[in-house]
Amino acid sequence: MAEQTEIKNKNISERELSLLEQKDLTKTDKFLRRVTIFLPLIFTLLHLIEHLFFPGTKNLKPSRVYAGLIGLLAIIYAVRIVASYFSFKAYEKFRFKSALYTAITIVLMAYDLATLKYGVLALPYFPWVGRVLDAMVSDRSKLWECVYHSLKLMFTGYFAGVSIGLACGILAGWSKKVQYWIQPITKVLGAIPTTTYMPIVMMLASSLFGGAAFLIGLGVWFPVTISAMTGVQNVQKHYYEAAETLGTDKLGILTRVVIPASMPGIFTGLTQGMSIACLTLVVAEMMGVEAGLGWYINWQKGWGDFTKMYGAIILICITFILVNSLLGLVRKRVLRWQDGGV
Q1: CATH fold of 139-336
Q2: How far apart are alpha carbons 331 and 342 in whole angstroms?
Q3: Do residues 219 and 243 touch, judged by C-beta distance below 8 A?
């Protein structure tokens, strides 16, 4: 009975926990917490009014694309505010993020005033956000083509590095004989940044794409190998004993016990490998690959078109955020047992 009571206490809902926290709040504190969720909408509307109706320097006109984006954000915030009155979870989630959303809107408004409205930050080095978005829309076909080439190159190298890294790491953690040969290689290659080999690899590779993919795979291979090897070595001994007691053979212990138990550590390496892949991708595309977002940034910089250059930078940031978010969802799905999921 005591254990069941303890489990129930651990499984207290977010609503109950928040209600317990609010018992000590004054009426003023509760009022301010409710007002907080309106701040993103208020400042977004102020930003929209500023962008559309404040006179710009040198008779520059506001961007319809940017104004539409601000209006869309205002609608989203309004919907979330309405939803917060019907769902306590939605209220708490939006209240927690409201300060961040408000801060981002204030920064965008300040930048818009400093560039488009008052010209404190002048062209061509500081285009306003609306001008950048207009450039992205006008050159969208080329940008989408570059996104495709970047993703193709990155995932080719990433999956190659992950495949070899998992094989090396799991076998090195499982067998001391394999570790004898793998560990010295990781110590030598791991201490040197992958981009150091770029001039040599690009010169020797039969194709620029293959050379860049090799560099990305090499960069991913190291953290995946180390994390997989460490994860296998850290599996608790009683897991082996329990599996042997049940009559599981060595291959079954490896595939059914060791690898699943090592997954938290392995995913740490996969996340680090993705960060290295993103960095190596941009450097490789700027140095020699003839397609991709990194190449596009370097190309527009050479022509002095900083507006399109900033557009590509924004797009590459969004792409990397989405890719890492996707990896996070996969991690959450695979490791759902850590949170008691089925």
Answers
A1: MetI-like fold (1.10.3720)
A2: 14
A3: no
Q: What is the DSSP string of 31-72?
A: HHHHHHTTHHHHHHHHHHHHHHHSPPGGGPPPPHHHHHHHHH
124 cis-preceded (ω within 30 degrees of 0)? yes
The larger pLDDT score, comparing residue 39 to residue 14, is at 39
Nearest to 109 by CA among 189, 51, 192: 51
**CB-based contacts of 93, cutoff 8 Å, min separation 6:** none
Per-residue pLDDT of 231-282, as tens digits, reads 888 877 777 777 777 777 777 777 777 788 888 888 888 988 888 888 888 8
Which range among 231-235, 317-321, 332-336 has the greatest average pLDDT? 317-321
Residue 117: C-alpha distances to residues 7, 109, 111 (Å): 59, 10, 9
Which position has the higher pLDDT, 59 or 17?
59
Model confidence at 1, in pLDDT bands (50, 70, 90)?
A: very low
195: left (phi over 0), alpha (psi -120 to 50) or beta: alpha
List the domain boundaries for the chain.
Answer: 25-129, 139-336
* Inter-residue contact 36 to 99 (CB < 8 Å): yes
Through-space distance between the first and last CA atoms of the chain, rounded to whole angstroms: 24
